[in-house]
Design brief:
The protein is an alpha+beta fold and about 500 residues long. It is built from 16 helices and 24 strands. It has a five-stranded antiparallel β-sheet with strand order 1-2-5-4-15. A five-stranded antiparallel β-sheet has the order 3-16-17-14-13. Strands 6-7-8-9-12 form a five-stranded mixed β-sheet. Helix 8 crosses helix 9. The chain binds siroheme (SRM) and iron/sulfur cluster.
């Protein structure tokens, strides 16, 4: 048995469309066959049923690192070609451009290529953006700088951006994360492969987790593969695991095709044996000396780098949304105050690294930092949201704007002693990673005054970093009308929130 996407791939591989872009531009979106609309996701072009004719374009940004030159090119592209002029930073420290037309695909892809950006294999049955520590090479306490490893994997799976026929025909999407710091900042446990820093016999390398998945059917953290690898084995092991998944992964019911289903079918021992065969040499057993020592930080604010005298400045980007003019401004700031480098985080924010201490105050006084604050309110600081109904056809509810407005209102009313991570997903597919939030919200339909309205299921207790744990369902089908009061109660009861007005009265008395 084979599912509809496998049938599409049998007729013509997804990647084949990369040679037909000029043709699609010439015929326009209405004439593109339905199967080619699916295949175009292999080159990062997502037809949006919500905004027909205006596409979403997903890039790759290994380890979330981009240059000011690239950010400037994106800003210019948005201003020239997008009706909404906006990009979104994603939960895989990546970028999606919005509002683009297929008629401009050749020009847009050419401009991206000129600045070293690619969209290849960013959707469908491919390895998604390879996530790594956002502070790799900067963090004074890091164990391993993972930047060369994320890049090496990205190059192997995309064939240096030219396209990899074999690895773009996986049974399903695939996620890889490499953490080199002591806080698991790249969320190893929610990826199909997660590398966690560890030491064995005096050598520093990684323990390996496999099979993490969040979707409408299941939310299962990755489990140990029971192996330890050296840094130079990270990319070959990733390819070995991908080979096993490619050759043996289930390709029938689409809902049972993620790698964890293969591990379920085989058991982890047989899975490990097959990976070892594909790897071509015995795998060392897992180390019992892992380096995950802290709860995860969000990297917002001003932080010392390992390079004396230098700082990275984490800017909070509300709901991860950046308009073209702000993209240009961000590029300018990275050039003027840093070395032109910009980092993206899985919390949908940005870091400007390599700021010398003598330029710090001037950067902090820049007007963009009023909007992208290094010191946001604790509630806004922890807000993450998936795309939702504005652009996503699978959404059950609108998320980004709703999440922002509601959080701003709560932040005005409540004083929070610590950040609270609230993660929104517009449907159970879990793109906003609700299972790792202190509070996770998943869009659903609910009843309110006898009417069917937008609602959410509420999860709580997600933990990232040391002793990570997925959040659990606490309330079902809460109508969005009741959400302000429900969230307010949860924040007061569980997170030490206090009503500002009452605090002010107390202080005055
Ligand atoms: Fe996702 C499908 C957006 C991270 C699980 N995801 C989609 C689509 C492509 C659906 C569609 O065609 O509209 C969404 C595009 C909407 C749009 O216009 O932006 C979409 N996913 C996103 C992003 C942009 C959310 C965000 O606002 O940050 C994230 C893009 C990451 C990237 O740069 O590649 C995004 N998606 C995730 C994550 C989180 C992660 O990777 O850590 C998950 C859960 C983790 C996982 O995969 O195990 C996730 N997305 C899904 C699923 C469920 C997959 C499954 O196994 O069933 C779907 C639906 C599907 O693939 O059939 C999906
Ligand atoms: Fe769309 Fe659902 Fe993913 Fe949100 S969680 S982006 S609504 S598929």
């Amino acid at each position: 048995m084979s599912n509809p996407i496998e049938k599409i791939k049998e007729v013509k591989p997804g990647l084949a469309v990369r040679h037909e872009l000029a043709h699609f531009a010439a015929i326009g979106w209405e004439a593109i066959p339905k199967d080619d609309l699916e295949r175009l996701k292999w080159v990062g072009w997502f037809f949006r049923k919500k905004t027909p004719g205006r596409w979403m374009v997903r890039l790759r940004a290994p380890n979330g690192i981009i240059s000011s030159q690239q950010m400037r090119a994106l800003g210019e592209l948005l201003q020239e070609f997008s009706d909404v002029q906006q990009l979104d930073i994603t939960t895989r420290q990546n970028i999606e451009l919005r509002g683009l037309r297929i008629e401009d695909i050749v020009e847009i892809m050419g401009r991206l290529e000129t600045v070293g950006l690619t969209t290849i294999q960013s959707g469908m049955d491919n390895v998604r953006n390879v996530v790594g520590s956002p502070v790799a090479g900067l963090d004074p306490s890091e164990v391993i700088d993972v930047r060369p490893l994320t890049l090496e994997i990205d190059n192997l799976i995309t064939n240096y951006g030219k396209g990899n026929e074999r690895l773009s025909n996986l049974p399903r999407k695939f996620n890889i994360s490499i953490t080199g710091d002591r806080e698991n900042s790249a969320h190893a446990e929610i990826n199909d492969i997660g590398f966690i820093p560890a030491a064995q016999d005096g050598a520093v390398g990684f323990n390996v987790l496999v099979g993490g998945v969040l979707n409408a059917q299941r939310a299962t953290p990755a489990i140990p593969l029971n192996c330890f690898v050296l840094p130079e084995q990270v990319a070959p092991l990733s390819v070995a695991i991908l080979d096993v998944f490619h050759d043996f992964g289930v390709r029938d019911a689409r809902t049972k095709t993620r790698m964890m289903h293969l591990i379920d079918d085989w058991g982890i021992e047989k899975f490990r044996q097959e990976v070892e065969k594909a790897f071509g040499e015995p795998l060392a057993p897992q180390s019992d000396h892992e380096f995950i020592d802290y709860a995860k930080r969000d990297h917002v604010g001003v932080h010392h780098q390992k390079q004396p005298g230098y700082y990275f400045v984490g800017l909070h980007v509300p709901i991860g949304r950046i308009y073209g003019d702000r993209a240009l401004e961000l590029a300018r700031l990275a050039d003027q105050y840093g070395t032109g480098e910009i980092r993206l985080t899985v919390e949908q924010s940005v870091l400007i690294p390599h700021v010398h201490e003598r330029h710090l105050n001037q950067l902090l006084a820049e007007s963009l930092l009023q909007e992208f604050s290094p010191n946001p309110d604790p509630l806004l600081r922890g807000l993450v949201s998936c795309t939702g109904a504005q652009f996503c056809n699978l959404a059950i509810i609108e998320t980004k704007e709703r999440a922002l407005k509601l959080t701003q209102a709560l932040a005005e009313e409540l004083y929070l002693p610590h950040p609270v991570r609230i993660h929104w997903s517009g449907c159970p597919n879990s793109c906003g990673q609700p299972q790792i939030g202190d509070i996770g919200l998943i869009g659903t339909k609910a009843k309110f005054n006898g009417q069917t309205v937008d609602g959410v299921n509420i999860l709580m207790g997600g933990k990232v970093g040391k002793d990570s744990k997925l959040a659990e369902l606490v309330y079902e089908k809460v109508p969005c009308e009741e959400l302000p009061s429900v969230l307010k109660s949860l924040l007061i009861e569980h997170f030490g929130a206090e009503v500002r007005e009452q605090l002010e009265q107390l202080e005055a008395s």
